Amino acid sequence: MKKITYIFAVLMLFFAACGNSSDNILSTDLVNNPNSANGNIDMSKLPKFEFQSEEHDFGKIQQGEKVSYVFKFKNVGKSDLIISDAKASCGCTVADYPKTPVKPGVEGEISVSFNSEGKKGIQNKTVTLLANTQPNSKVITIKAEIIVNANN
After folding, report:
1. The domain containing residue 64 runs over which residues?
2. Which residues contact residue 79 at a Cβ distance below 8 angstroms, ignoring those fewer than 6 apart?
3. How many Cβ atoms are within 10 Å of 124's Cβ, its own excluded?
4. Nearest by Cα to 31 from 75, 85, 80, 78
5. Which of 35, 109, 111, 142 has the fewest CB atoms within 10 Å distance of its CB?
6. Sorting pLDDT into bands at 50, 70 and 90, what band is 54?
7. 97-148 pLDDT per residue, tens
8. Does residue 118 sit within a domain?
């Protein structure tokens, strides 16, 4: 009986470990890495960001205030644009980006939130987007002047 229980447990672990979900799998056809060993890069076929604005100024905000801004962009390239990551320069800044490919000619949005808790004065924060573009990173910027109340 112990052997049967043991075999059943091992089989359950095996099936759980092998259960691949195809929801998050991207086709390799979508990934076009232009950096090749032969040095020939056809830039005309690559995806490309075109932002309405790459910088946003929140102006003066009160210390502790949480603000957000949506950066709008368009893929003006000739293949699907895939953003693999968005790294903020500070833990007070969070970026939400499209997790699915952005088709050529289609617009997308990157929402950036900033928490001014514990900050004061002029703050400049960046978000670095990693994508299948050339170059493979794009930086967008937010800034604000944090006003500290006398009773804080």
Report:
1. 48-147
2. 30, 32, 45, 46, 47, 104
3. 12
4. 80
5. 35
6. very high
7. 999 999 999 999 999 999 999 999 999 999 999 999 999 999 999 999 999 9
8. yes
Q: Any idea what the CATH number is for the domain that residue 118 is in?
A: 2.60.40.10
Q: What is the DSSP string of 72-120?
A: EEEE-SSS-B-EEEEEESSTTEEEE--SS-B-TT-EEEEEEEEE-TT--
**Residue 33 counted as domain residue:** no
Count of structural domains, the chain: 1
Would you state the pLDDT for residue 13? Answer: 58
How many other C-beta atoms are found inside a 10 Å radius of the C-beta of residue 17? 8
Strands 49-51 and 66-75: antiparallel
Residue 80, domain member (yes or no) = yes
* Beta-carbon-side half-sphere exposure of residue 130 (alpha carbons within 13 Å): 6
Torsion of CA 55, 61, 65, 66, to 10 degrees: -20
Answer yes or no: are the C-beta atoms of 87 and 47 closer than 8 Å.
no
Which tokens belong to 13? 């672990």
